[in-house]
Each structure stands twice: as structure tokens, then as C-alpha cells.
Amino acid sequence: MAGRRSGMTRHALAGGIAWVVAASACRAAPPPVDARMLTDWMRAQYALVRAERLSPPVASRVFAYGAVALYEGVAAGSPRLRSLAGQLNGLSALPRPEPRERYDWAIVAASAETTLLKVLFKEGLPATQVAIAQLGDSQIAARRASRPVHDRSTAYGASLGRAIAEWATGDRFLETRGLAWKPPRGRRYWVNTAEPQQYISSSLSAQSEAVSLRNPADTLTAGAAAERSLIVSRPKSARIKTLAALNPTGATEPYWGRLRPFVLTSMDECAPPRPPPYSEAPGSEFYRQAKAVYDTGSTLTPEQREIALYWADNPGESGTPPGHWLLIASQLVGELQLDAERTAEMLVLTSVAMADAFISCWHEKFSWSLIRPVTYIRRVIDPRWHTLISTPPFPEYTAGHAVQSGAAAGALTALLGDRPFADSTHVTIGRPVRSFPSFRAAAEEAARSRLYAGLHYPVSLTIGTAQGECIARKVVERIKTRASP
Questions:
Q1: What is the 3-state secondary structure (H, E, C) of 160-209?
Q2: What is the spatial distance between Cα 442 and Cα 436, in angstroms, rounded to a whole number?
Q3: DSSP secondary-structure letter at 367?
Q4: What is the pLDDT of residue 428?
Q5: In terms of domains, do 255 and 326 share one?
Q6: What is the secondary structure of 40-60 as a DSSP string?
Q7: N- to C-terminal Cα distance for the chain?
Q8: Which residue range forms the structural domain that includes residue 339?
Q9: Block means of pLDDT (10 residues each) for the chain, length 485 residues?
Q10: How many CA atoms lie within 13 A of 173 on its CB side?
Q11: Which of 72, 277, 436, 448 is most open to solvent, judged by the fewest CB atoms within 10 Å of its CB?
């Protein structure tokens, strides 16, 4: 009898211990957010921007709001990170988690991002909506949180995503949709020289069917250096306003300079000096700028040609220039073994700096509406001259690649220091890895690539890079991501 009671006691004790262990496991904090979850979203957005053929300014807006949502999801559960509410223009407050309740912050971040991107891509292709939902669902399911924690975290993340989407509606983006633009007239002003056949590849999408390779335009020729040009049977609908594909026959986002910046307080901040006065006289500064483009394009080395094509990042063929820099940042996460908090900081500061860079740059472009080199050179120097890459459909000064690359490099340097790195962004499309001694060196090469391509005067590149670096300094100075000790 005593043996039976002893056995029962041992059984009860073992059961009690198991119950305590199980209960403790239920109460244990969920594992920390994996930084790869954040970079998976950056890579997904890169792919979606490419599939939707978004213009670089529109892409920069999507990347920035997406990075804010991810950051806020991580920051809400971190004692070390500060919310961006009250720091970004127009973002006065965000929902806060319930005190003393348990959350899985990875679920919060994934839910916030999924909710926001479904709004930003609401006019997207069906495949885009599916991709967003699948990534969010898979990340949330992988956490294996208890049902109460799962539901609470998903709901809170969704509330964050909705609040950020609501904040986005106040940036005047929707007000600029469909506004007519009348270009100024005169010899110094930009004239759109883009031809639809040079942008055939921008018709590609996740919903397109490639049906022909027999078109004479489908070759790598001067002025049409896209590496693949296909005719497609299902172009993107013209009724789409918020996610319209780049239109080479029109002007790209002439009113982008009206958008609310994320950090800048006015367009006077970081404004570049006036461009050189227009002149067709051979001894003038403007003529010398154009002649530099002409001479460079006439004597391109294989390495210069490779640099021009590497940094082209054309809509429809890539995730655009801001997407390229965010993939560079994503590659550094694994290389430097950054945790989720550091990754969220890096992505949000870099993407916000680039978003403000496009607003500032586009304000200058359409204020000056300066003539592109191809038009000037054909008029004054050589009527048969061709650019290596198709001239994009917006004015010249300042250079978008230079401004946004300067901003991205400035933000990354402030966060990670002046370090060497390798960029493998374009390996999947057949371009080898490129190595750089610093972020600034990469930004300078990205800017210089537009001289090699025949698209910008040298002055637009040097001043544009400085403009972007100024914007990065403003962003890093004004956004405080770390909580006070």
C-alpha cells in the first residue's frame, strides 16, 4: 500500500513539474525578432516595385513608409528604441501597446507591414497582393505564439499599419495624381526625348506575357541599352493612379516637390546653387559641361560602360535606385551580424533620407527644367550623338542618382562608419559583384555612372551628391532612434 502511495506521489509530482514547465513556457517571452524578417520585407518590396514598374520617386515613398512600419513594430517592444511619432513631419502619435500584456514583436512588425503595404499597393496587380499576404502570413505562422499572444500581437500590428497608412494620406501624394503639367518653352528648357520603344521592358510585370523577340528594338544599341526588351500582351492599366508604371511619353512626377517631406522642413534646406547659365558659346561654362559629356561618351572604356549599366536601375528592370541601396543595406545585415533593432534603424534612416532626397531633387528638377545633354549636344555639337542609356523623362538638374545615393551613403556612414563593402544586388541579372572602399565611394560611382551614360552634366553630379549628403545629415541629426539612458 505504501508502495502504491509512493508511486502515486511520484506520478503526481512529475505531473506537477510538467504542468509548471508548460505554464512557464506559456508565460516565457517569445524569441526576439530576427533581423532577416526585416530584410525579407525589403527584398519583397524591391521585387514588387520592379513588377509594378514604379518610377523611382514613387518607389522611394513606398520604401520609406514600409521601413517606418517595420521600425515601429520593433521599437514598440524595445526599451532601447524610440518611436518616430513626434519626430517625422505630420506623425503626431501612434497606437501604443497595452501595458502588462505580452506581445510577440515579430508578429507585431509583420502585421504592421502587411497592413500598410496592402494599402500602399491597393491598386497593385493581383500577384502583388498575394505576395504581400503570403509573406506576412508565413512570418506570423512561423512564430508559433500562443493564441492570445498571436491575436493580440496581430491586432496591435494592424492598428500600427492603419495609423501609418492614415498618416501617409496627408503627404499630398494623392493631390498630385493626374495634375496636368505644361512645360516651359525656350532653348534652355528640357524637352522629353524618351521614345516608347526604348522603354518596352517597363511594360513587363508579374501579369505580363512576353510574346515576341523579333522586334528590331530588341537589341543592345546606343540609346536603348536595356539588356532585355520584350513586347508584352498585357500592359498595365492606364486607370491606375497610385501605382502607375513609368510613362516615357510624359513627364515623371512634375509635382513631386510638393509632397510633405519626412524630415526636411522646407525645400530651401539643402537647396543647391543655380546651375550654370545657359549658353551655346563654345567658351561658356555651359558649353564646357556639355562637351565633357560628349567627350566622355565618345571614349567610353569597357569599365565605364559596365559602371553605367550596373547603376542604371531602370524601372521595370530593377527595384529602382532606392531599392538598390536598400538591398545593399540588407546585405550588410548578415555580413555585420546586425540584430533586428540595428537593422530597423538602418533601414528606416536610409529609406527616409532617400525619400526626402527625391522630394528635394524633384523640386529642383522642375523648378529649373534644365535641358538634358542629349538635346544640347545634338543641337550645338553633334547631331548624330547618342547616349548609352535612354534619357529618362524628366529634367536634368540636379541628378537623381547623385542626390539619392549621397543621401543613402550619408545615412549608412553615420550608422555603420566608413567601411568597405561588396554589392551583389545584380548578380541575379548577370552582373558581377562590385566592391567599394566606402559608402561614399559607391555613391560617387553611382553619380559618375550617369556621366558615362550620357545623361547628366558633371556639375549636376557633384552638386547633387552634396545635396544628398546634406539631406542625410538633417535626417541623422533630427531623428533620434535611441531612448535616453
A1: HHHHHHHHHCCCCCHHHCCCCCCCCCCCCECCCCCCHHHHHHHHCCCCCC
A2: 6
A3: H
A4: 81
A5: yes
A6: HHHHHHHHHHHHHT--HHHHH
A7: 63
A8: 196-478
A9: 46 42 52 95 96 94 98 97 98 96 97 98 93 97 95 98 98 94 96 70 49 36 40 59 80 97 97 98 97 97 96 89 97 96 98 98 98 98 94 96 98 96 89 95 98 98 98 98 81
A10: 23
A11: 277
C-alpha cell at 409: 551613403
* One domain, residues 348 and 383: yes
Residue in the structure block whose three cell numbers are 493580440: 152
Number of domains present in the structure of the chain:
2
Q: What is the pLDDT of residue 358?
A: 98
- Listed residue (36, 135, 113, 37) closest to 69, CA to CA: 113
* 274 is a domain residue: yes
pLDDT of residue 199: 52
Quick check: 41 and 304 in contact, CB under 8 A?
no
> Do you find a cis peptide bond into 398, omega within 30 degrees of 0?
yes
Residue 130 forms part of a structural domain: yes
We report the CATH number of the domain holding residue 161 as 1.20.144
SS3 482: strand
What's the confidence (pLDDT) of residue 448?
Answer: 98
Contact 115, 162 (CB under 8 A): yes
Distance CA 61, CA 54 (A): 11
Going by C-alpha positions, the residue among 387, 399, 414, 388 that lies closest to residue 475 is 414
From residue 389, alpha-carbon distances to 56, 216, 289, 463 in Å are: 16, 17, 19, 22
Measure the CA–CA gap between 453 and 451, rounded to whole angstroms: 5
Which distant-in-sequence residues (6+ apart) come within 8 Å of 79 by Cβ? 483
C-alpha cell of 268? 530651401
Same domain, 210 and 139: no
pLDDT for position 233: 42
Residue 186 lies in a domain: no
Closest of 207, 249, 212, 248 to residue 231, by C-alpha:
212
Q: 210 and 140 in one domain?
A: no
Is 248 in contact with 316 (CB distance < 8 Å)? no
pLDDT of 198 reads: 54
- Is residue 152 domain-resident? yes
> Cell 520593433 appears where?
74
Distance, in Å, from the CA atom of 69 to the CA atom of 60, rounded to the nearest integer, reads 14
